[in-house]
Design brief:
Helix content of chain B: 25-40%
Enzyme class (chain A): oxidoreductase
Oligomer: heterodimer
Structural class of chain A: alpha+beta
Shape of chain B: globular
Low-confidence stretches of chain B: none
Number of helices of chain B: 11
Radius of gyration of chain A: 23 Å
Radius of gyration of chain B: 21 Å
Number of helices of chain A: 18
Shape of chain A: globular
Strand content of chain B: 15-25%
Largest sheet of chain B: 5 strands, antiparallel
Domain FAD-binding PCMH-type (chain A): 52-230
Structural class of chain B: alpha+beta
Largest interface: A-B, 97 and 87 residues
GO cellular component, one term (chain A): glycolate oxidase complex
Helix content of chain A: 25-40%
Order of helices and strands of chain B: HEEEEHEHHHEEHEEEHEEHHEEEHEH
Organism (chain A): Metapseudomonas resinovorans NBRC 106553
CATH topology of the largest domain in chain B: Uridine Diphospho-n-acetylenolpyruvylglucosamine Reductase, domain 3
Distance between the termini of chain A: 13 Å
GO molecular function (chain A): (S)-2-hydroxy-acid oxidase activity; FAD binding
Low-confidence stretches of chain A: 485-489
Mean pLDDT of chain A: 94
């Protein structure tokens, strides 16, 4: 079923008179930059999930919090839907615009307001790029730990909205673990501070609830992140295996040895070959799987852990274990992994990147399942994943110019996510639900759970104007989609008419 | 699983549904070890202790799923046998502490600034809601951004949003090496040193100033702990100090004046408040024994960017919320607990 907003199953949207709205915005917010011509709106019709596009009614580019505040008040007054967007690097269509809504672009909020080394925090505007925070903190030997692969471009506001992760998550946590405070504007244009400069705050943990809420509960106007001391050293081991099962088991063995790597990544043969052709990282191209295990911290500990991990990997049946000889080789090992997606892009006209998580022990079975599905749908799948925390990124290779291939890729992707749910995992580890996985939410949650999610939304945004249609599907959508979670044998939505 | 494992969720659900039908509030309680926190409750007792046992535990997954009536000590012992721990070091504050109480109170021990809070280790929950449904949120995986994070919201909500029946927690390996140090420094010097050290990759995992000495715990590999011990000082103290601090058994806590927990930005200078103070969390948590009026304490603490919680029975134990924030608390409570049956008034009279 198409994932673009469909009023029939996603709910009716308010009808907005574009001309009247534009006139009023110009009158009440004379210094607000507004785009309204077709050719100006086009560049904003999608985020990183470019297969789905909708031209927004208007795009606004505020520079000051007061403008956002006034805009939200006006939109609330006139019942105009608002979709907030940062750098637009999201891969799940979380910032996909609406034809009947305003796209609120927060990219101009790009100032680092404060780097406080003794307090070990940085206060930044939401449009600041993830990597720019670490760069600003670097003179104090501090850094911001969460490192999504898009960190050179993605903005911190989007990281908070999606609870972004990355290679370092197992050891250093997700975005939610690295925040102190978020200033938001509610749909009514009311300013709230969630969290504080202290480590905790009175009341419910709304900071935790807000993180990963995909722009549904408020608009982020400022973020205070924790900074950590930079690890003294980081070393990387590369281990080759003649089977993905062995590599998967080795991951569990490393954890069982009491070692928490800074990064622990796995690639299968197709991904290894693509990355090697592109980056020349020195990967063993005949291996069925490789593991990259980074150990970071104080020198003496890292040295000891490298020896321990080497032994574990050898015992687990690695055909080869290499320690990056120097920093240049370490960077090269990582470059292969970090460029795995574009590398796969070179061997296929198009690819579709999935993001699901599973308990690590289920890895061999899930990889077998993916191989079977790949054959069934006639599309190749390359596997790259954050092995340490069970976050898989199967890349489905297809050619959008071949009739039906995009649809087959989508269907295969959906099946892979359902497989993740079936083994106790999740349909999204770090990319978010957005519009992309709106249907698979029906597989992971039952009607009562989805209803409670809608209740949470209603507590913050009773009229549903913020980012409508994202994150939580309506029960009608689930009924139509048909892939429902049957809980304890009870058919969900018995009250709903079947389409 | 152990013989003491028992799934009493059906009974708990029935009791909740009865309470909903009769619109009668419930007072959710495990071992009662943290019942002195928060406002005084009436309501019918919903005792969670029968619902106990570890549901799944696979050490290589670093995840344990446990029923919330399980004694905290039992969970910790099981983890210890596998060389793992709850890194947030939750206080028991009594021999009967349960896992549910740990989650509901959301209190963390001395390791908190370096390892994270109870909330940071919550991966998933099963919750009986105010609609009388037993639902599942989050899961047993480290990364999961499907839907709203209701599991972490439950941590520290004092049972006001639902009955948590099961929780999946991230666990970590125990550190290979530990050392306890004591340095003679006054508080200002200690806070300055901590701010400095905080910017360096040192294996500090606890830091408390007792008015006379700065106590430090180092945890990590043998090499890093030995190097840091040599660098920072070598007077070692007993291992019991941190547990005594966490369980409020140090002599500081026997002072008869009311106890306050003050949460502050870690680099806040010494607080000028009447009474005795004990600084924990490297400066970010300060225990205060004081008879000063609540408003005075809260005014000083708010000014410094923090908040103060009174650990005595009183009408306003938690720092009052700004009006706008309270409105969203009430709206959230109304959605999750529309009949107001879960611990009404435990945190604030309005919720």
């Amino acid at each position: 079923m198409n994932i673009l907003y469909d009023e029939r199953v996603d709910g009716a949207l308010p009808k907005v008179d574009k001309t009247a709205l534009l006139a009023e915005l110009r009158e009440r917010l004379p210094d607000l930059d507004i785009l309204h011509q077709e050719e100006d709106l086009k560049p904003y019709e999608c985020d990183g999930l470019s297969a789905y596009r909708t031209t927004p009614m208007l795009v606004v580019l505020p520079e000051r919090v007061e403008q956002v505040e006034q805009l939200l008040k006006l939109c609330h007054e006139h019942q105009v839907p608002v979709v907030a967007r940062g750098a637009g690097t999201g891969l799940s269509g979380g910032a996909l615009p609406l034809e009947q809504g305003i796209l609120l672009v927060m990219a101009r909020f790009n100032r680092i307001l404060e780097v406080n080394p003794s307090g070990r925090f940085a206060r930044v505007q939401p449009g600041v790029r993830n990597l720019a925070i670490s760069q600003a903190a670097a003179p104090f030997d501090l850094y911001y730990a969460p490192d999504p692969s898009s960190q050179i471009a993605c903005s911190i506001g989007g990281n908070v909205a999606e609870n972004a992760g990355g290679v370092h998550c197992l050891k250093y946590g997700l975005t939610v673990h690295n925040l102190l405070k978020v200033d938001i504007l509610t749909v009514e244009g009311e300013r709230l501070t969630l969290g504080s400069d202290a480590l905790d705050s009175p009341g419910f943990d709304l900071l935790a609830l807000f993180t990963g809420s995909e722009g549904m509960l408020g608009v982020i106007t400022e973020v205070t992140v924790k900074l950590l001391p930079k690890p003294q050293v980081a070393k990387v081991l590369l281990a080759a295996f003649d089977s993905v099962e062995k590599a998967g088991r080795a991951v569990g063995d490393i954890i069982a040895a009491g070692i928490i790597p800074g990064g622990l990544e796995m690639m299968d043969n197709l991904a290894i070959r693509a990355a090697e052709d592109f980056i020349h990282a020195g990967y063993p191209v005949d291996a069925e799987a490789i593991l990259l295990c980074e150990l970071d911290g104080v020198e003496a500990d890292v040295h000891d852990d490298c020896e321990r991990v080497r032994q574990v990997l050898e015992t687990a049946g690695a055909t080869e274990v290499r320690l990056a000889r120097d920093e240049a080789e370490r960077v090269r090992f990582w470059a292969g992994r970090k460029n795995a997606f574009p590398a796969v892009g070179r061997i296929s006209p198009d690819y579709y990147c999935m993001d699901g998580t599973i308990p690590r022990r289920e890895l061999p079975g899930v990889l077998r399942g993916i191989t079977e599905l790949s054959a069934e749908y006639g599309l190749r799948v390359a596997n790259v994943f954050h092995a340490g925390d069970g976050n898989m990124h199967p890349l489905i290779l297809f050619d959008a110019n071949q009739p039906g291939e995009l649809e087959r890729a989508e269907a295969l992707g959906g099946k892979i996510l359902e497989l993740c749910v079936a083994v106790g995992g999740s349909i999204t580890g770090e990319h978010g639900v957005g519009r992309e996985k709106i249907n698979q939410m029906c597989a992971q949650f039952n009607a009562d759970e989805l209803t409670l999610f809608h209740g949470v939304k209603a507590a913050f945004d009773a009229t549903g104007l913020l980012n409508p249609g994202k994150n939580i599907p309506t029960l009608h959508r689930c009924a139509e989609f048909g892939a429902m979670h049957v809980h304890h044998g009870q058919m969900p939505f018995p009250e709903l008419e079947r389409f | 699983m152990s013989q003491t494992s028992f799934d009493a969720s059906a009974r708990l659900l029935e009791q909740v549904n009865d309470a909903i039908a009769q619109r009668k509030p419930l007072r959710i309680q495990g071992g009662g070890s943290k019942s002195h926190l928060g406002r005084v409750l009436t309501g019918e007792l919903l005792d969670t202790r029968e619902h106990r046992g570890i549901v799944t535990y696979d050490p290589t997954e670093l995840v344990v799923t446990v029923r919330t009536g399980t004694p905290l000590a039992e969970l910790e012992q099981t983890l210890d046998e596998q060389g793992q721990l709850l890194a947030c070091e939750p206080p028991h504050l009594g021999t009967d502490a349960t896992v549910g109480g740990m989650v509901a109170a959301g209190l963390s021990g001395p390791r908190r600034p370096w390892a994270g809070s109870v909330r940071d280790f919550v991966l998933g929950t099963r919750v009986i809601t105010g609609q009388g449904k037993h639902l599942r949120f989050g899961g047993e995986v480290m990364k999961n951004v499907a839907g709203y994070d209701l599991s972490r919201l439950m941590a520290g909500s004092f049972g006001c949003l639902g009955v948590v029946t099961e929780v999946s927690l991230k666990v970590l390996p125990k550190p290979r090496a530990v050392a306890n140090l004591r340095l003679e420094l006054d508080l200002s010097q200690a806070l300055q040193k901590l701010a400095q050290w905080g910017q360096q990759p040192l294996p500090i995992s606890a830091a408390c100033h007792d008015g006379e000495y700065l106590h430090l715990r180092l945890e990590g590999g043998e090499g890093s702990v030995a190097a840091a011990r040599d660098r920072l000082g070598c007077e070692t103290i007993g291992l019991d100090f941190w547990e005594d601090l966490r369980e409020q058994r140090l002599s500081f806590f026997s002072d008869k004046r009311p106890l306050w927990r003050v949460s502050l930005p870690n680099n806040t200078p010494p607080l000028l408040l009447p009474g005795a103070q004990l600084v924990d969390w490297g400066g970010a948590q300060r225990w205060l024994k004081s008879e000063a009026p609540a408003e005075d304490i809260r005014s000083v603490v708010s000014h410094a960017g923090g908040h103060a919680t009174c650990y005595e029975t009183c009408d306003s134990p938690f720092q009052p919320l700004p009006a706008a924030l309270m409105r969203y608390h009430r709206q959230l409570k109304a959605q999750l607990d529309p009949h107001g049956i879960f611990n009404p008034g435990r945190m604030y009279a309005e919720i």
